[in-house]
């Protein structure tokens, strides 16, 4: 027989372990009470057991807490990054050279003739106005027209060649200059010596692949530096070879591309084609402009109304209808096409923009106005300043919209890298000013025009 409470073996009716009197239980009496007593005893024992358990105090594990916080922050950053992938990409612009002087010389027009101002002495003329027409300087030479014929001059205004050319082209990297004599084009060196005799109807400068585009009797082809044909004249129209090694040509009314051997790499199918730059080219098809790669495949489908090209930063200003925006090389809008006019960034953080109400302000590379529209006209930022027109007079503001040179000019150009800008005073005469608005050209000079690219 066992105790009805602790269930241990009984040696007598009274349990020696828990003290319970099991007499009635052993005689089979008071069963209900026995079960109740057993239940109560069990609960009492459990309660005593529970009370014997000490409550542990919670201790903070700071290392685990820090790890948890770091994990949460990483998750937040990851979510932000994913969201940013669906936002418009910011236009990042590269600084471009924007000097107003060409090889330290600025061509100016005064009293019906052209001369030059030198950057080393702005108080007077480096070459007195004396020519009917001139070009910008290329290194140490320029072209000047005397009595209807062109000659090559140096920076002192001295003639290197006699005035005998009807027209002159630009100076190529190899030093060749395309010139026209008696209706035919050939090539000379800087000293006037012929290296390729005049025999072409038209002639371009030499490309980096040492070929030049020429035409004879309406057909276009390419020559080498020896004047011999590398690709015989056969195209209705053509462009010089680009640095990518391709040239756009027109055949049977359509434009395509060839390589330096004259092999068609992209068959003629476009209404218009332009030179490749950085492995992409803008073409026109079905009345719209798009972009192809060197395999002739569209990477941006034709959808734009105006020719465009990508700048050094990989962005292009495009037109849809009568509004402009900016796209990247994948055709994604960096700035929505919502502006009736917008400028080029050219290395600056802001450029002018107009929404169509006739008021100009300045936007950042996301198309957000940072200087509110308030001017009747505006030019592009350059070297931290931008020309703006208030009423009929022009002045200059900084990137915060502060007027740093008060409106006082009838027209104003952007500042050049040299720190000077060409402006027209109230008499309509050209003067050069510095970034403080001070006139730096001589008071005795009377300049009507300046040759700015």
Which word captures the global form? elongated
Unreliably modeled segments: 29-58, 80-95
SS class: mainly beta
The overall average pLDDT, rounded, is 87
**Main β-sheet description:** 4 strands, antiparallel
Assembly state (oligomeric): single chain
Strand composition percent: 35-45%
Strands, total number: 37
Helix content: 10-25%
Rg to the nearest angstrom? Answer: 43 Å
The rounded distance between the terminal residues' Cα atoms is 120 Å
Strand order, sheet with most strands = 3-2-1-37
Count of helical regions: 3
Describe this structure in words.
With 453 residues, this protein is mainly beta. The chain contains three helices and 37 strands. It has helices spanning 23-26, 31-51, 62-84; strands at 105-110, 113-118, 127-131, 133-134, 142-146, 149-153, 167-171, 177-181, 184-188, 194-200, 202-206, 212-216, 219-223, 229-235, 237-238, 247-251, 254-258, 264-270, 272-273, 280-285, 288-293, 298-304, 315-320, 323-328, 333-339, 341-342, 351-354, 360-363, 369-375, 377-378, 386-390, 393-397, 403-409, 411-412, 421-424, 430-433, 449-450. It has a four-stranded antiparallel sheet, with no helix packed on it. Strands 7-8-9-10 form a four-stranded antiparallel sheet, with no helix packed on it. It has a four-stranded antiparallel sheet with strand order 11-12-13-14, with no helix packed on it. The longest helix has 23 residues, at 62-84. The termini are far apart. The model is unreliable at 29-58 and 80-95 (pLDDT under 50).
